[in-house]
Specification:
The structure holds two protein chains of two kinds. Chain A contains 15 helices and 21 strands. By secondary structure, chain A is an alpha+beta fold. Chain B has one domain: Nuclear Transport Factor 2, Chain: A (Roll), CATH 3.10.450.50. Classes of the chains: A alpha+beta, B alpha+beta.
Chain lengths: 450, 173
């Protein structure tokens, strides 16, 4: 902990930075957006205790299938063992720490270390160590040298893992946000699958900026994304007064999970699961609860963030240049810190398993053109902002300053008949979700239980 | 033994190379109307996803969810928005430079189609950012002739990096 006690140029240590939060979270220190010591503390206090998303079940459908991912900076192998159980193993030999598996994905029953050929099966047990009996003596027991293994939990096909043996069960960690995941993922009779291996790319900017943005920042839509929205890319452009203003609802939970549901005026809105192929929409509607249908009626977007770093968006694109029909897509995005100002994005597009190949291809197209790694037209404007928040925070003055997250603090929230669980407010543009995120973040950084 | 195909005439290789140089200069110089004018109406642009399989003999690119999928219409949409004061990611303009090399020309399926492979190095910067470089292989389909000129019917870009930086995904290759 010595290095973290050192004062930086602004005279700050992590504890001082945490003290800059206002009690109502209306002020957030800019230093949390780029301070290396803050990231070190996050990796230790959040990324080793929270349930972290590591992949979708369909990525490892068969025994032996594996993908390599990261949990914070720790590299892991996510695999389905020969008995069909999902395992999350540290991707480092228990002997000297060599990376065991270098591929992005594949299928194998065993992992052999390239250094001294220690060989592990895909349950993490050491099965072979060359010359062990002779070189170590008779006391060498392979059972003493397994790969470190994380706890695994699965919800609606989303695979999560945690290093913390004391962490609450996944269902408790997810809390009320699980209902919204069920609304998106639990109504397809055939389930969902990945459209393909995920896009991975590096972006400039702290990991949290993307998460709080996806988590409920309706406010930036008409301004950051003014050009594509004015051009009619989404339904949200219809605010010329003829059909009434679009509106929305923000949702948050004590665990720091958040969501926003955006609505179009009833005159121009769509049915629940807007942009889904017609046959599938009937299936989804048949499986959804009345409350879910009420939440989704006229909704043109559902987006949010599972604390800490799994964002999602379900929306439909009306136009990106040449396709005439609305097509929806559902993308999960993991924002994994690389350093305090660099984030690796992992884009996992899910499609209903029962959709036609043609519809799946249209969904890929809609997603790639607007929310893909190279979607300059839409996401490019976000990444520009995210990078600059970290960059302007490099100054000495910046490190002692706070940012304004007060929107909605002065607005009362009257109880109403909103049918979804969690705390919520009928506000389209609000920073309540941001404050819920930083509330959970600060509790974790201070080692407090939610 | 099957007959050796006739070699592509040197004039054709020269004309195709000139076409590629002029086309990328239009992108570097932000002459987007000039660039769109050399695209076929059914133009398809794709950047497949680079992946790392275990076997050195396995395919290194996945096409199920590519990094980029564009058409002439969607690229026109992207370039036309530059006129807006609110095209944040494109204002101010990027510094951009394409270096095109290793041009190989072969016959396509139709007599007026040509399969053109090339390597490209693209340098990009903006404001005071350091320059980012990206290299890639390109597979193009051209239609036309040395005498009447060409249009670009499709372009597939094979990036030489598994996890690119978003700034390397901004240029059209």
């Amino acid at each position: 902990m010595t290095t973290r006690e050192l004062r930086d140029a602004a005279g700050l240590i992590v504890a001082d930075i945490l003290d800059l939060f206002s009690p109502d979270f209306g002020r957030v220190p800019q230093a949390v957006m780029n301070h290396p010591a803050v990231l070190d503390a996050e990796l230790e206090r959040i990324f080793t205790t929270a349930w972290l998303f590591v992949g979708h079940e369909s990525e490892i459908a068969e025994p032996g299938d594996y993908i390599t991912r990261r949990m914070g900076r720790d590299q892991v192998i996510v695999t389905r063992d020969e008995q069909g159980e999902v395992r999350v193993l540290r991707n480092a030999c228990s002997h000297r720490g060599t990376l065991l598996c270098k591929a992005t994905s594949g299928n194998t029953s065993h992992f052999m270390c390239p250094y001294h050929a220690w060989t592990f099966d895909n349950t993490g047990r050491l099965r072979g160590a060359p010359e062990a009996r002779k070189a170590y003596g008779p006391g060498f027991d392979r059972a003493d040298h397994p790969l470190k293994q994380a706890r695994v939990g699965v919800h609606q096909g989303l695979v999560f893992a945690t290093w913390d043996p004391e962490a609450p069960p996944l269902a408790e960690f997810l809390g009320d946000i699980a209902w919204y995941l069920d609304m998106l993922l639990g109504t397809a009779s055939g389930g969902w699958e990945v459209a393909g291996p995920p896009q991975r790319y590096l972006t400039s900017g702290n990991w949290k900026i993307s998460c709080e943005n996806f988590g409920g920042d309706g406010y930036h839509l008409p301004y950051t994304h003014r050009t594509p929205i004015e051009a009619g890319l989404f339904g949200e452009d219809d605010d010329d007064g003829s059909g009434g203003k679009p509106h929305g609802r923000v949702v948050w939970t004590p665990q720091g999970h958040t969501a926003r549901i955006g609505y179009m005026p009833p005159e121009v809105g769509g049915p629940p699961y807007w942009g889904m192929s017609d046959g599938l929409r009937a299936d989804f509607v048949a499986n959804a609860t009345p409350e879910m249908l009420q939440v989704l009626d006229n909704a043109d977007v559902v987006h949010g963030n599972l604390f800490p770093n799994l964002s999602f968006i379900f929306t439909a694109i009306t136009y990106t240049g040449d396709e005439p029909d609305n097509t929806s897509f559902l993308i999960f995005r993991m924002a994994m810190p690389v350093d305090a100002e660099t984030t690796e994005m992992v884009n996992i597009l899910l499609v209903p398993r029962d959709a036609t190949p043609e519809w799946k291809q249209r969904s890929v197209l809609a997603c790639v053109r607007t929310h893909g790694a190279a979607a300059v037209l839409f996401e490019g404007d976000d990444f520009d902002n995210f990078a600059s928040v970290s960059a302007t925070g490099r100054g000495v003055v910046a490190q002692g300053s706070t940012l304004d997250y007060s929107m909605g603090l002065g607005l009362p929230v009257e109880p109403d008949d909103w049918p979804g669980p969690g705390e919520s407010a009928p506000h389209d543009h609000s920073e309540r979700t941001h404050r819920a995120f930083y509330g959970a973040w600060l509790r974790a950084m201070k080692g407090e239980k939610p | 033994m099957s007959a050796r195909p006739d070699p592509v005439p040197v004039e054709m290789v020269f004309a195709v190379t000139q076409f590629l140089h002029e086309e990328s200069a239009a992108l570097d110089e932000a002459r987007y109307e000039d660039w769109l004018a050399v695209l076929a109406d059914d133009f398809q642009y794709e950047i497949p996803l680079p992946v790392t399989p275990e076997s050195p003999y396995a395919e290194q690119y996945s096409r199920s969810m590519p990094l980029s999928l564009e058409s002439k219409g969607s690229l026109r949409f992207r370039f036309e928005r530059l006129a807006s004061d609110y095209a944040w990611a494109d204002r101010p303009r990027h510094f951009l430079r394409h270096f095109v090399s290793n041009v190989r020309v072969g016959p396509g399926e139709r007599p007026d189609e040509w399969i053109v492979r090339s390597n490209v190095l693209v340098a990009r910067s903006r404001t005071s950012e350091p320059t980012t470089l990206a290299s890639a292989g390109r597979h193009d389909l051209l239609r036309g002739s040395a005498r009447d000129g060409f249009v670009l019917a499709s372009r597939t870009v094979y990036l030489d990096v598994e996890v690119p930086h978003a700034s390397q995904l901004i240029p059209v290759y």
